[in-house]
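Onboarding guide, step 5: your first structure request.
Type a short instruction followed by the sequence, for example:

Predict the 3D structure of this protein.
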Amino acid sequence: MAEITAVCISQKKGAKKHPVEHVDLVANYGIQGDGHADSQTHRQVSLLAVSSIDKMKKLGLDVKPGDFAENITVEGMDVCHLPLGTRLKLGDEVELEITQIGKECHDRCAIFKQVGTCIMPVEGVFARVVSGGRLKAGNSVLRC
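The system replies with C-alpha cells like these:
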C-alpha cells in the first residue's frame, strides 16, 4: 500500500518547501498556508514519489522531501505514471485529481545547476483538490 512520507509547505512560490506535522487541504483551492494554493489554477497541490527523489540521491545529491517544492511525498506509488484525470484518496477525507504531469522549468533550479538535471519537470505531478481535509505522514494513498 502506498503512503505519504512527508507533507511540505512554503509561503512563497519558487522556494523549497519544508516538512510540517500536518497540512489542511481546501477543496478547489489547495493547502492552507502554501504559496501555490489558488482557486484559479489546476496546479493546487504537487506530488512526488520517493523513488524520484532516490534517483537524484544516486547522482550524489543530498536531497529530502520538500527540496523539489513538492507538497506531498509518496512512497509505494509511482505517481508520475498515473493517467491525467486519475483520482487519489489520501487519508480518510482528501481526494485529489491528477491534472498535470511534469512542468516547464523556466529558470533552471539549484538542483539542475548542480547536476545538470532535475526530476520535477518530468516526474512531478500536479493535482486539484476535489475534497479537502487534514493530511500527515503515514496516511494512505489509494487510487479511486
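Each response can be followed by summary notes, for example: The chain has three helices and eleven strands.
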